[in-house]
Structures are given as structure tokens and as C-alpha cells.
Amino acid sequence: MEIARTAQPGAHAPAGRRAGAGRLRGRPRITYGGSEAYYRTSTDLVNVPEASNFHTAEDFYLTTFHELAHSTGHSKRLDRATLTEKASFGSESYAKEELVAELGAAFLGNAAGLDMALTLPGSASYIANWLQALRNDKRLIISAASQAQKAANHILGIVPSYEAGEAAEPTEAPE
Fold it and tell me: Is the distance from CB of 61 to CB of 69 less than 8 angstroms?
């Protein structure tokens, strides 16, 4: 007897595909200058100091990726509550958003082929500060990593198969 079954979601589908130009929901304006890196939600602006202000190219790019990861939380993109809701410095929501941005920067740095060993001490220290602030949330790292991966995917234009609506092909069970 043959039993038709559906494969597990994504089991035979590609891990992701490039999104069409219309899939990305806007981009922030990016400026270079000044002494501080930041993302300003109200004007949808990423600002990063000039590359010459950083010790290494990796530091420059990871800082840029960090701010771009913040920008994906804008209401016209991924609409991440940790960015769209008012949060005071040091609050749980603020800390989670910082962790999402730092993990997103690490994912993007890896995707870009940056030598992450050069930046690991700084990133690890930064993440540790926010983890300390949220040590009572046992699910924090999983939640933040999930949001960070969504941010990285958005920036890279990757649409996971489960979001693209790709149906898995039915397969037959072995006899």
C-alpha cells in the first residue's frame, strides 16, 4: 500500500531565495559623518562615522550592519516591537533590541565574509552587557537570534521558503 504524505515544511525546498525588488519594504537613508553611529526611527536614518574613524574595516562594517539591523525593525519593514515602541535606555525592550542588532550584525558580517575573529572580543563584550541586563529571561537568546536572523534575511533580500509560500512536494512512503 502506498501512503502519500507531505514533507515537513522546508524539507525539500531551498533554504531561501532572493527576493524581488518589490519584496524589500523600503530602505533607510544612510549618511556618513560625525562621531556617533545611530539609527533614528523618526526620520528612518542610519548614520555611521566615516570609515577612517574605525580601527579596522571589520569594525566599520559591523557598526554599519548593527545600525542597519536596527532599521529593519521600522514599521514599514519588519515592524519589530522592540524598535517601534518607546523604550528607555537600559529597559528590557531596549536591551533586547540592542541584542537583536548585535546578533544581526554578526550574521551579516559572517555572510559578508568578514574576519569575525578580529571583532569577536568587542561584540562578545557588548552582547554580554545586554544579556546581563536581561538575565532573568530564559528565552531571550532564542527570541533575539530569531529576530536577528529575520533582520539579516531582510537586508540580504532572502525570503525563507516558509514565507515565500512554497509548498513542499508530496512524497511517497517507502513500501
Answer: no
C-alpha cell at 140: 531571550
- Identify the DSSP state of 170: E
Q: What is the mean pLDDT of each run of 10 residues along the chain (175 residues)?
A: 28 34 68 96 96 92 96 94 80 85 94 82 68 74 92 90 53 49
Name the amino acid, one letter, at 175. Answer: E
Residue (of 98, 83, 90) closest to 144 by Cα position: 98
- Torsion over CA: 67, 88, 95, 97 (sign): negative
pTM listed for this prediction: 0.74
User: What are the two backbone dihedrals, phi and then psi, of residue 28, each rounded to the nearest 5 degrees?
Assistant: -75, 160
